[in-house]
């Protein structure tokens, strides 16, 4: 079990490479929005959902009402409701030991995407432990990165515009690497359909709505698969 | 906004996000026998993961392209994606592929800035 947890921790490095720069940026942006560094870290500890955290601090900075901020954050994170059942579907042949609230706590976009693309490579009896390590590594990277940005990172990015621009490419690079990993698990028309639906939806909806549109299109196309 | 309001807001947003992740898992567990007997639902759930990855990629790339719509600004993105592709082929792991792509992107930005 321990080995599987450590293997999960190691595999979370791919997420950490993406998380740490973005979390540092979040810490920095929070301090710029006059939020105390320790509250920025608290937001990462409790909310733990990247994009919605950036929206949260920008709404706080613009003086929006607390209730509407909570509503918008939850609306943005609504797409996460699809992840749990899909993940459990991948764990259906594995012995269940972890409480459900532990499984759910760290289920972010990147953890879900990495778990879906790598779970099938783990032995069935070690999948839960591996997933626990993956979640833990990603969570520590996110919270640690936020603390670094909030408490220490101000000077780094201020002094290097190139670094701050390069950091913006980390998440697209991570998602593309994940796509290369899972592209053989589903037919190409499904991936193309989901991508097309997302791009079209972007003209009409905010980004989080477009992500849901892409996922639902993929799900509908998935239903048409024969004998999957 | 006061610190105490911000803390309450954070707790509410955190609890809500956690429940969004947890409740569908609990509902799924209760109805797992049913979902196994429904191939349509199973196929849909299996397609959601890869679709989410594609959707997240499309959104993150469009953010970058729309931030700088000029043709020249697309060059570092293309080189960065090629870096990921090459990194994945040569080095294998997702972490190294991501790092290779980010380095290729940063190097192209730097070279483009030098040539201007």
Describe the structure.
The complex is a heterodimer of chains A (228) and B (116). In chain A, 75% of the residues lie in helices and 0% in strands. With 228 residues, chain A is mainly α. The longest helix of chain A is centred in the middle third of the chain and has 25 residues, at 127-151. Chain A is globular and about 50 Å long. By secondary structure, chain B is mainly α. Chain B has a domain at 69-116. In chain B, helix 4 (71-91) packs antiparallel against helix 5. At the A-B interface, helix 2, helix 3, helix 4, helix 5 and helix 6 of A face helix 1, helix 2, helix 3, helix 4 and helix 5 of B.
Q: Would you tell me the structural class of the helices and strands of chain A?
A: mainly alpha
Radius of gyration of chain A: 18 Å
Count of DSSP H/I helices of chain A? 14
Q: What's the quaternary structure here? A: heterodimer
- C-alpha-based Rg of chain B, rounded: 21 Å
Describe the global form of chain A: globular
Number of domains of chain A: 2
How many strands in all of chain A? 0
Number of strands of chain B: 0
Overall mean pLDDT of chain B: 84
Q: What is the helix content of chain B?
A: over 70%
Gap between N and C termini of chain A: 31 Å
**Beginning-to-end CA distance, first to last residue of chain B:** 45 Å
Structural class assignment of chain B: mainly alpha
Biggest interface, chains and residues, is: A-B, 96 and 76 residues
> From N to C, what is the helix and strand string of chain A?
HHHHHHHHHHHHHH
Strand content of chain B: under 5%
Throw out a few tags for this protein.
heterodimer; A: 228 residues; mainly alpha; 2 domains; 14 helices; B: 116 residues; 5 helices; 91% helix; 0% strand
């Amino acid at each position: 079990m321990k080995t599987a947890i450590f293997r999960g921790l190691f595999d979370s490095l791919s997420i950490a490479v993406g998380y740490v720069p973005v979390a540092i940026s979040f810490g920095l942006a929070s301090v710029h929005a006059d939020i105390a560094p320790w509250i920025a870290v608290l937001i990462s500890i409790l909310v733990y959902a990247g994009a919605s955290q950036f929206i949260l601090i920008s709404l706080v900075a613009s003086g929006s009402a607390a209730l509407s901020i909570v509503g918008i954050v939850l609306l943005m994170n609504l797409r996460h409701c699809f992840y749990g059942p899909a993940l459990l579907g991948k764990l259906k042949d594995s012995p269940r030991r972890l409480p459900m609230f532990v499984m759910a706590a760290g289920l972010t976009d990147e953890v879900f995407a990495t778990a879906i693309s790598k779970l099938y490579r783990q032995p069935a009896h070690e999948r839960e432990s591996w997933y626990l390590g993956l979640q833990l590594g990603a969570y520590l990277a996110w919270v640690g990165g936020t603390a670094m940005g909030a408490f220490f990172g101000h000077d780094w990015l201020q002094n290097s515009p190139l670094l701050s621009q390069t950091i913006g490419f980390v998440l697209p690079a991570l998602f593309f690497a994940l796509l290369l990993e899972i592209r053989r698990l589903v037919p190409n028309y499904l991936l193309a359909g989901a991508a097309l639906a997302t791009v079209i939806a972007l003209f009409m909806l905010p980004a989080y709505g477009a992500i849901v549109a892409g996922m639902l299109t993929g799900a509908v196309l998935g239903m048409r698969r024969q004998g999957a | 906004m006061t610190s105490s309001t911000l803390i309450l807001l954070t707790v509410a947003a955190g609890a809500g996000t956690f429940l969004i992740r947890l409740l569908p898992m609990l509902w799924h567990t209760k109805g797992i026998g049913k979902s196994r007997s429904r191939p349509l639902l199973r196929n849909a759930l299996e397609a959601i993961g890869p679709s989410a990855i594609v959707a997240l990629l499309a959104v993150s790339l469009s953010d970058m392209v729309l931030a700088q719509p000029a043709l020249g600004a697309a060059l570092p993105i293309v080189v960065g994606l090629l870096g990921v592709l090459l990194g994945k082929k040569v080095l294998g792991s997702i972490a190294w592929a991501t790092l290779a792509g980010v380095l290729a992107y940063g190097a192209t930005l730097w070279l483009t800035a030098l040539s201007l």
